[in-house]
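Before a colleague's protein record goes any further, I have to sign it off. Thanks in advance; the entry in question is below:
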Amino acid sequence: MDNLYLFAMLAGTRVAVEASEVEAVVRLSDISPVPGMGAHVAGLSALRSRVLTVVDVAALIHGRATPAQERGLAIIANISGHSYGLMVESVSDICNVLEGELPLRGQIDPAWAPYARAIVEYDGMPWLLVPLARFIEGGGQQQAA
């Protein structure tokens, strides 16, 4: 289906993700830290006999890691042949939005500028449309800045 989006709260912001990018949304029970990695890599976790790299998106956006007691919910995605869990605060819905994506307008928080592609209007509110791959491809560069 075209214009099908997952709506979530991520780093305190309403975001939309194209449903075709999402494999699943799960609660991760154990995240094992990886020494020497940036704050945006929460660690590794297992899901259905696969190893996931768990990315703390809030750390990418705000520069500080999510406290351990607040970790757990993740969007699972296959990006460039690798499995990732991108931590989110909550997921509210998945539905079809007939209008689809709209151009970015107004002022956008500079921290979100590298990640946002467009706006999706849902339930009378604007949601930033974010391609999940942008969190992986640009993550190390953002953390170093």
User: Anything to note?
Assistant: Residues 139-145 have pLDDT under 50 and may be disordered. The domain at 4-144 is CATH 2.40.50.180 (OB fold (Dihydrolipoamide Acetyltransferase, E2P)).
